[in-house]
């Protein structure tokens, strides 16, 4: 907070943290600026050659509007009490351009340094006209007037690594395409449901959310304090082995003969130990070839879930932390290699339903570069060797608490539109998302009072195991809810069904996500003649045992991504039993059929957690998952 005291003992003029040096203000609209002072104070403000005035109300709040400005700068903003220019706030380095609010859960929060080609991207990120304001994590019971922390930063290689990768790559493309300064207000929190970001007033209007929002009435600020203390202890246990276990358990002579065994690689949900959150130790004894002795070896451990430490013959060889990008291979120094039997120990945090070693089996081994020794097979494991993790209520997931602390304080800062990437946390409520998502969009638009502000969002990517047969899917139903939200005015969706990773809920290719969002902006907002979306299901007709599907966004034609047969279609009759279908492109249609279904009633495309699908338009954008039926889904209560 900038504190500037007015002379003669008057109350200070203050501005909320959303205003600061190097900020970007929105072009093409009357620019709002607001703050606090003593009641009745006459405020004078200058932005470049523009001037505006206001009077603080009975509670000391004031708000003024600068006239419409074109892109440009830099400008200086001066704010003072009228007649006392020597006691003023001065903000420097201000540009006029387009400001986008980027929000959602972890895939929007995922940083440049955690994403694809991070080293090269960071080194080249010198863009003085791209600015970021990162809103600090915070949660509050009532709507706040200021954010907890955050300041505007000019994008450069020294700070870009911490910015949202999706928002950065979006900003970079729009800046290059439109030649205007771009500001990003990043307000994100991983793992959070959409209800957290929606106001109490809006949630009270729906029977879906009324009960949950009234549950907040029992909360107090002390609830948050207690949870914060538990959180400190939680991560202390995760990162610091308790009960001296890091000295005892990895020891070569430690007796683990009484431990149960589990086949690796696999995840905790397949352990057979039921839902569990805490620290688990695993051990495996292996005999290495004599040719390995005296050499540095490489241990490939695949892609373990969550936080872990690895030990070889009692010595720690790696330790990862949350939100880091752990390597998948580590060096075992030659001095640790023993002839005959060697011991590998793994301390791993089983958190939020995750934990374990990801398949495939060939991804875990020890090698000298020529010979591989597999680590797949039986491992011994034991839980509860360390204190249990304290219960964390994760109040950030409670309805409206993030809206109160991380959205309300930046209203009504002038913006061009919204960027949104969220949905994973609502997978079990996919059917309700049909209403929850439009509720949030309407809520934010109403509060900004800038009309139907553009709302651009990312559809859930492909994730989890690929299933051999057509089946129901919560993620498919969530994607459907997102597609249906395109019926809301001034919305655009980036489909990324082709760039996910089966074993990583945070796929690294954030460049393409940002690019596809920018395509939507260029078409919807900046009115460029571009194709911004892949083929979108439009209608179908039935001819005997075949169904003809027509698409929008395919005026130049349809094709497959890999020049192979079309994959991803399934078809069913009245019995609602789906079979994989054959599909061919005929002109502007895709013709779908299966020998097992002589009287087809429904077609689905890419209807799975992680579908194998390859239909695209000639611009290379993937066809959006869809179904022609309205049969009851697994999330429809």
From TrEMBL:
Keywords: Hydrolase. The keyword Hydrolase applies. The keyword Hydrolase applies. It comes from the Bacteria. SUPFAM superfamilies: Galactose-binding domain-like, SGNH hydrolase. It holds the Pfam family SASA. Residues 98-217, 406-519 form the Sialate O-acetylesterase domain. One of its GO terms (molecular function) is sialate O-acetylesterase activity. GO terms for biological process: carbohydrate metabolic process. This is Sialate O-acetylesterase. It comes from Pedobacter kyonggii. The lineage of its organism: Bacteria, Pseudomonadati, Bacteroidota, Sphingobacteriia, Sphingobacteriales.
């Amino acid at each position: 907070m900038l504190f500037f005291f007015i002379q003669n003992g008057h109350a200070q003029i203050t501005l909320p943290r959303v205003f600061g040096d190097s900020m970007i203000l929105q072009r093409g609209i009357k620019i709002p600026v607001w703050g606090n002072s003593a009641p009745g104070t006459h405020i004078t403000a200058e932005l470049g050659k523009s001037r505006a005035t206001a009077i603080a109300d009975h509670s000391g709040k004031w708000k003024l509007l600068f006239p419409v400005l074109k892109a440009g700068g830099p400008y200086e903003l001066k704010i003072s009490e009228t007649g006392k220019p020597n006691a003023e706030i001065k903000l420097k380095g201000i540009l006029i351009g387009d400001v986008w609010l980027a929000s959602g859960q972890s895939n929007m929060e995922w940083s440049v340094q955690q994403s694809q080609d991070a080293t090269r991207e960071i080194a080249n990120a010198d863009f003085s006209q791209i600015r970021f304001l990162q809103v600090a994590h915070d949660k509050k019971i009532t709507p706040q007037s200021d954010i907890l922390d955050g300041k505007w930063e000019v994008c450069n290689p020294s700070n870009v690594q911490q910015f949202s990768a999706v928002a950065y790559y979006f900003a970079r493309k729009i800046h290059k395409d439109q030649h205007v300064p771009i500001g990003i207000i990043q307000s994100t929190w991983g793992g959070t449901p959409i209800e957290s970001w929606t106001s109490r007033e809006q949630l009270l209007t729906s029977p879906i959310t009324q009960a949950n929002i009234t549950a907040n009435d029992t909360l107090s600020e002390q609830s948050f304090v207690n949870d914060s203390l538990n959180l400190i202890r939680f991560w202390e246990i995760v990162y610091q082995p308790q009960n001296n276990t890091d000295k005892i358990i990895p020891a070569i002579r430690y007796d683990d003969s009484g431990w149960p065994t589990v086949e690796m690689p696999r995840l905790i949900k397949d352990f057979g130990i039921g839902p569990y959150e805490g620290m688990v130790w695993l051990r495996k004894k292996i005999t290495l070839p004599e040719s390995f002795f005296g050499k540095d070896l490489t241990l490939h451990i695949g892609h373990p879930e969550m936080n872990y430490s690895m030990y070889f013959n009692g010595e720690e060889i790696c330790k990862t932390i949350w939100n880091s990008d752990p390597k998948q291979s580590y060096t075992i120094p030659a001095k640790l290699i023993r002839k005959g039997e060697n011991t590998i120990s793994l301390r791993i945090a089983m958190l939020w339903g995750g934990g374990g070693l990801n398949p495939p089996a060939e991804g875990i081994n020890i090698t000298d570069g020529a010979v591989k020794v597999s680590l797949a097979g039986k491992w011994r494991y034991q839980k509860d060797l360390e204190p249990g993790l304290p219960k964390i209520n994760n109040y950030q997931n409670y309805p409206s608490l993030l809206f109160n602390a991380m959205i309300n304080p930046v209203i009504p800062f002038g913006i061009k539109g919204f960027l949104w990437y969220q949905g994973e946390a609502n997978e079990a409520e996919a059917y309700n998302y049909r209403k929850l998502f439009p509720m949030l969009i309407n809520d934010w638009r109403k509060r900004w009072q800038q009309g139907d502000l553009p709302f651009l969002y990312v559809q859930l990517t492909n994730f989890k195991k690929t299933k051999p047969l057509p089946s129901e899917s919560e993620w498919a139903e969530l994607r459907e809810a997102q597609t249906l939200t395109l019926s809301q005015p001034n919305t655009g969706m980036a489909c990324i069904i082709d760039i996910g990773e089966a074993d990583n809920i945070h796929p690294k290719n954030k460049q393409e996500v940002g690019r596809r969002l920018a395509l939507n902006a260029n078409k919807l907002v900046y009115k460029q003649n571009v194709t911004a979306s892949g083929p979108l299901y439009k209608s179908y007709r039935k001819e005997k045992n075949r169904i003809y599907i027509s698409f929008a966004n395919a005026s130049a034609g349809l094709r497959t991504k890999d020049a192979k047969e079309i994959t991803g279609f399934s078809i069913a009759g009245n019995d609602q039993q789906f079979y994989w279908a054959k599909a061919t492109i005929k002109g502007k249609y895709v013709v779908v059929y299966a020998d097992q279904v002589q009287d087809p009633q429904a077609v689905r495309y890419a209807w799975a957690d992680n579908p194998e699908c390859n239909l695209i338009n000639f611009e290379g954008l993937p066809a959006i998952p869809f179904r022609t039926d309205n049969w009851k889904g697994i999330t429809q209560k």
